[in-house]
Amino acid sequence: MLASRAFSLIGKRAISTSICVRAHGHAGVVKAEDFSLPAYVDRRDVPLPEVAFVRDLSAQQKALKEKEKASWTALSVDEKVELYRIKFNESYAEMNRGSNEWKTVLGGVLFFLGVTGVILIWQKHYMYGPIPHTFSDEWLSAQTKRMLDMRINPVEGITSQWDFEKNEWKK
User: Fold this and answer.
1) Residues ≥6 apart with Cβ < 8 Å to 113
2) For residue 22, which phi and psi values (nearest 5 degrees)?
3) In what helix (H) or strand (E) does residue 77 lie, and over which residues does it extend?
4) H or E element: which one contains 108?
5) pLDDT score, position 30
6) What is the pLDDT of residues 113-171, one digit of tens each?
7) Percent of all residues in the chain with a pLDDT value above 70, rounded to a whole number
8) Model confidence over 41-84: pLDDT tens digits?
9) Three-state secondary structure along 10-50?
10) CB-CB contact of 29 with 23 (8 Å)
């Protein structure tokens, strides 16, 4: 029963999202965007987008587009800017303007480095035991003395550097 209920909910959800999506707070139904149609994109490497930024022109914008077909010397600077804004959302200067995103990225990197440091300190304190006694200076000197007494690797090893007659390291 639970499985059939889950499958029915999943099926209803898949059908409802593929056909249309309800708008939040609106009575109408908003259709899903068709991604096979050309879309507007502001990018420096694509200087001319496939479609204009403003698709549905107002009456004032339509009149301006009709005025555009005549001589451009008759247009004012504000009208030229308005025509530009119909076609493009941002200019190159606005696209090249710096953002503060680097601060967020740097903050995230430093946060995760700090979390990693805390984890490493916690592991060293609680997970690892004390340093083995074989790392002490006394143990290492006793081990070296034992290797010399056993004459381990006398041709190229540690005992080749030891002078057994003077009982000291060769110079």
Assistant:
1) none
2) -75, 135
3) helix 77-87
4) helix 101-122
5) 67
6) 999 999 999 999 999 888 899 999 999 999 999 999 999 998 998 889 999 999 899 98
7) 82
8) 888 888 888 899 998 999 999 999 999 999 989 999 999 999 99
9) HHHHHHHHHHEEECCCCCCEEECCCCCCCCCCCECCECCCC
10) yes
Strand, coil or helix: 149: helix
Length of the chain: 171
Identity of residue 137: D
Report the alpha-carbon distance of residue 164 to residue 149 in Å, rounded: 10
Record the tokens describing residue 36, joined without a space.
């096979």
What the block records as the tokens of 139 is: 């143990």
DSSP, res 101:
H
43-53 residue pLDDT tens: 888 888 889 99
The tokens of 80 are what? 């030229």
**pLDDT band for position 26 (50/70/90)?**
low
Q: For residue 154, give the 3-state DSSP assignment.
A: coil
Cα separation, 81 vs 87, whole angstroms: 10
| Per-position b or e across 131-150, b if 16+ CB within 10 A of its CB | eeeeeeeeeeeeeeeeebee
